[in-house]
Design goal:
The chain has 604 residues and is of the alpha/beta class. Helices cover 44% and strands 13% of the residues. The chain has helices at residues 54-68, 103-115, 135-138, 146-158, 174-177, 208-222, 246-252, 254-271, 307-316, 319-326, 331-335, 339-347, 368-384, 408-419, 421-424, 429-437, 445-452, 468-473, 487-506, 514-542, 554-578, 584-588, 592-602, and strands spanning 11-16, 25-29, 38-43, 46-51, 76-82, 88-94, 120-125, 162-167, 192-194, 197-199, 229-231, 275-279, 297-302, 353-355, 389-394. The relative contact order is 0.09.
């Protein structure tokens, strides 16, 4: 049977008669091909490659390697023509939510990204770079250093990937603002209210001095990489217009206050010839800004729940919808997916990108089907409205308790779809993971990873930006489970987890990190089964309502507590297999609220 390379090409024709194993290869430039495009032909006369540019040659030779690995290479001739849908295919890894990867883990990511034809890699940083003058902010975080970035930049370049700085400069600056020396920079130094809870300051006041402060961070970190592009973040400035900028926002409008500050940060880099990305969540809610985007600046439109998932939450009309509305979420807009914002920006002629999510965060074992639908929605809307790039994001909210391997599937799918949507929308993801990523001849490891990513749906409780597993393990009073799963749903989820455990026990992954992936996925199952049992106990204690974990039967609570310490010990061990020690203790503290609830229950 003829081999289909990964990613699937847009045109593949086979003929009888393949090329000898030692067939000569001729390569030539064809300027008529699209950028990054190639045509590869194999047959009895040898192998020929036509390519538009060095990237096209790289992709053609990667496909040739896959074909040569097939036993039918000498029997089947191939004629493959291919080029990307999106010029820029980027992957962003959050390294600021406690988990900072080791060099070995970064190298593994580069390997996977190269396989999936990403050509841009962004490491999202807030406080996890060793800034020269800000040691107190990063000293306990095991941050990346200048030497780390020099090494990674070279490693990426050898794989045809550009390493791009992604440093936040506006919102999400709480790791800086938590220190007294930086508190004066906050929009609200005493914190702010969101979702019915008081939160510490997270947003820089939009002042010229703070723009200069942000420039200093950007200047230092961009000096370590060769890319002439960067991402300045500027998303979710939750407090903007409520503190130091309140008066000016009332005078000129919140959008103007926002974009004046962003422009101060953007402009020096645009003047220096850089291309600059920024998150578009505030920007797209202020259409009056559309004609103010300077050349070289790229708003990146993001959304991380697939439209159907958002529609399920709205249709349920539950406490979940009410909680997100209280946080300021526009649920009607979420149900439209990427289309509304892409249409708005595309019709204005503004160069833009789309940014779906890998669905790994707030999940423990992933929300893979949501990620797949979210990626497809982003690609479809992006292509329909002229987006020039697709940036797949892997965030780490609430301490990144999900293992890196949970994001492997979304990364593989996201790269393939942003390369060619129509050829890859029906990708057999489990098979691709087994054949190209985990190298499991038993065909079980990839299937287990794929099936784990669908367990969250089995609970029958529609949520945004998370799974019932994570909500059970990391209770947040401002975002509780809207309802408890039924006993039958918990049984179904437990059965699915048990099947995945059996598959992992029988798999034989030969990848360099295959044993690590299996261990961390087994641990993800342990955590998920623990969450299922916590929810069972809450169901039993509630008699139709949810009294919380502190109302669980005392004996059951003591049993759960006995299980918890070994689970946390394994979390530490798995973490250190791929990640640096800084941030681990902060991440582990995320489960303290549940532990305290169980202790109260056990003491009754």
């Amino acid at each position: 049977m003829p081999t289909t390379p990964f990613p699937a090409p847009r045109s593949l024709v086979t003929t009888p008669g393949g090329a000898p194993a030692d067939a000569p290869v001729t390569a030539s430039v064809n300027s008529a091909l699209p950028a990054q495009g190639y045509r590869l032909r194999t047959g009895p006369d040898g192998v020929s490659v036509e390519h538009r540019d060095p990237a096209g040659l790289r992709y053609a030779l990667a496909v040739l390697d896959q074909l040569r690995a097939s036993p039918d290479f000498h029997e089947v001739g191939y004629d493959i023509s291919d080029h990307p849908d999106f010029e820029r295919r980027a992957f962003m890894l959050d390294i600021s939510r406690d988990r900072v990867p080791t060099r070995r883990t970064l190298a593994r990511w580069v390997e996977i990204l190269s396989l999936a034809r990403f050509n841009q890699f962004e490491l999202y940083t807030e406080h996890t770079y060793a800034f020269r003058d800000h040691q107190q902010v990063w000293q306990d975080a095991s941050p990346l250093t200048a030497d780390d970035l020099h090494w990674l930049d070279a490693h990426c370049a050898a794989a045809g990937i550009e390493l791009v700085v992604n440093q936040n400069t506006f919102g999400h600056m709480e790791r800086f603002l938590a220190h007294p020396e930086y508190a004066h920079r906050a929009e609200n130094p005493d914190g702010f209210e969101r979702g019915g809870a008081h939160r510490p300051p997270s947003t820089l006041a939009p002042t010229a001095d703070n723009a200069d402060f942000a420039q200093g961070l950007l200047t230092e970190i961009t000096a370590q990489v060769r890319a002439r592009r960067l991402n300045i973040g500027a998303d979710e400035p939750f407090e903007l217009g409520t503190g130091r900028s309140r008066e000016r926002a009332a005078q000129v409008g919140l959008g103007t206050v926002y974009f004046d500050y962003v422009s101060r940060v953007l402009q020096p880099w645009l003047d220096a010839g850089y291309t600059v990305q920024f998150w578009a969540d505030v920007f797209t809610h202020h259409p009056e800004l559309l004609d103010q985007v300077p050349a070289g600046a790229i708003p990146v439109i993001w959304q991380y729940d697939a439209p159907q998932h958002a529609a399920d939450v709205v249709a349920a009309d539950s406490a979940e919808a009410a909680a997100w509305k209280q946080r300021g979420a526009d649920l009607d807009r979420l149900q439209e997916g990427f289309a509304a914002d892409c249409r708005l920006v595309g019709d204005a002629g503004v160069t833009h990108w789309v940014a779906p999510g890998a669905g790994n965060w707030n999940s423990v074992i992933g929300r893979l089907d949501n990620a797949v639908e979210n990626i497809l929605d982003a690609a479809e809307a992006g292509l329909a409205h002229g987006a020039s790039g697709c940036l797949l994001t892997s965030w780490g909210d609430n301490g990144m308790w999900d293992a890196p391997s949970v994001a492997f599937g979304p990364a593989v799918f996201g790269g393939a779809v942003s390369w060619c949507l129509e050829a890859n929308r029906g990708l057999d993801l489990g098979s691709v993971l087994d054949e190209h990523v985990l190298l499991d001849p038993a065909g079980l490891a990839g299937r287990a990873l794929e099936q784990l990513g669908g367990v969250y749906r089995l609970f029958g409780v529609p949520l945004l930006n998370g799974s019932p597993i994570a909500r059970a393990l990391f209770p947040d009073p401002s975002l509780p489970l809207p309802e408890l799963p039924s006993a039958a749903a918990l049984d179904t989820a437990a059965d699915a987890l048990a099947r995945c455990r059996r598959d992992l026990a029988a798999c034989e992954p030969a990848a360099s990190d295959g044993d690590v992936a299996v261990r961390e996925l087994r641990h993800g199952i342990d955590l998920s089964e623990f969450a299922v049992d916590v929810l069972r106990a809450r169901v039993a204690a509630g008699n139709g309502s949810d009294p919380g974990a502190d109302a669980i039967d005392a004996g059951t609570a003591r049993g759960l507590l006995r299980r918890l310490d070994p689970i946390l010990a394994e979390q530490r061990a798995c973490w250190l297999l791929r990640s640096r020690p800084g941030g681990l203790e902060d991440s582990l503290r995320r489960i303290d609220p549940l532990r305290h609830e169980l202790l109260r229950a056990a003491a009754r």
